[in-house]
């Protein structure tokens, strides 16, 4: 049986929309400038390990408003695999994204524009790859300026994908659903406690062999979970616990994953501040 670590898939990779900031806000305190993350796994443990989406090898740069402005992901060998830079408008919305894919050196640029009166937005994507052409996304916003529907169009103007978003009363993401060519492909739903911490994430993905994957989180007094239980399809639940080391600002700089009281992975973070 593969041991599954925490994996909170905010399936918004096709439209980041600052969701990385929302995700990161649950993981850091204070006026953070940068975070360099490295992951070490035990050589004695067999299986595929999926850790939290912000516990992989990566480097994150934030502006003084706590927004992610640069995110570099690294391969297992420590080489950059992609670099994403984000620019925001004066209403805290994504205005421009540039992604560099390595080692191919392919660049994708996405420009966003908004019509506040009609609560609409448009995104135009253009890739440097010779086989790619310009594509478009049409965005519908709620009263708070958050996306509630995104429709993707190919270079011929044909719609091929739709993403819908639902939020709770505190405007935290409650559900995201992706349809590909009219068929349900992926859905994620979230539950929060009264402190705004995620206590359950339920994932459905058409290609998951076991169907649904549900993660339940346990906290003490801090923003960081001390335990999570993964329920994969009809398999027995699997519980992992976490232990942390903190810096003087209260941010964790070392996180150890335990399975059956055995350390199976260590995540280290180097954090700088403004």
Plain-language structure description:
- Helix content is 3%, strand content 54%.
- It is mostly beta strands and 274 residues long.
- The chain has one domain (19-273): Porin (Beta Barrel).
- The protein has an 18-stranded antiparallel barrel.
- A hairpin with a 7-residue loop joins strand 7 and strand 8 (135-141).
- The model is unreliable at 1-18 (pLDDT under 50).
- Count up the domains: 1
The whole-number mean of residue pLDDT values reads 83
Q: Strand share of the residues?
A: over 45%
The radius of gyration computed from the alpha-carbon positions, rounded to a whole number of angstroms, is 19 Å
Q: How does the overall form come out from the CA principal axes?
A: globular
Uncertain runs? 1-18
Summary tags:
274 residues; mainly beta; Porin; 18-stranded antiparallel β-barrel; 1 helix; 3% helix; globular; disordered N terminus
């Amino acid at each position: 049986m593969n041991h599954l670590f925490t994996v909170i898939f905010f399936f918004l990779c096709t439209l980041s929309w600052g969701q990385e900031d929302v995700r990161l806000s649950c993981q850091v305190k204070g006026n953070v400038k940068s975070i360099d993350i490295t992951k070490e796994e035990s050589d004695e443990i067999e299986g595929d390990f999926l850790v939290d989406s912000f516990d992989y090898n990566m480097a994150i740069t934030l502006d003084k408003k706590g927004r992610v402005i640069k995110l570099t992901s690294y391969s297992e060998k420590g080489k950059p695999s992609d670099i994403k830079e984000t620019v925001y408008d004066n209403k805290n919305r994504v205005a421009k994204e540039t992604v560099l894919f390595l080692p191919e050196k392919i660049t994708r640029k996405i420009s966003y524009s908004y019509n506040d009166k009609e609560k609409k937005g448009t995104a135009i994507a253009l890739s440097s790859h010779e086989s790619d052409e310009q594509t478009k996304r049409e965005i519908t916003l709620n009263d708070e300026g958050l996306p509630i529907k995104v429709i993707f169009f190919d270079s011929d103007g044909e719609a091929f994908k739709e993403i819908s978003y639902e939020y709770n009363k505190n405007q935290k993401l409650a559900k995201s659903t992706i349809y590909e060519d009219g068929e349900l492909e992926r859905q994620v739903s979230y539950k929060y406690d009264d402190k705004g911490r995620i206590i359950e994430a339920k994932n459905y993905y058409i290609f998951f062999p076991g169907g649904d994957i549900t993660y339940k989180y346990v906290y003490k007094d801090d923003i960081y979970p001390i335990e999570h239980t993964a329920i994969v399809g009809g398999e027995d639940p699997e519980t992992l616990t976490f232990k942390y080391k903190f810096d003087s600002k209260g941010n964790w700089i070392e996180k150890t994953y335990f399975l059956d009281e055995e350390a199976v992975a260590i995540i280290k973070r180097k954090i700088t501040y403004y």
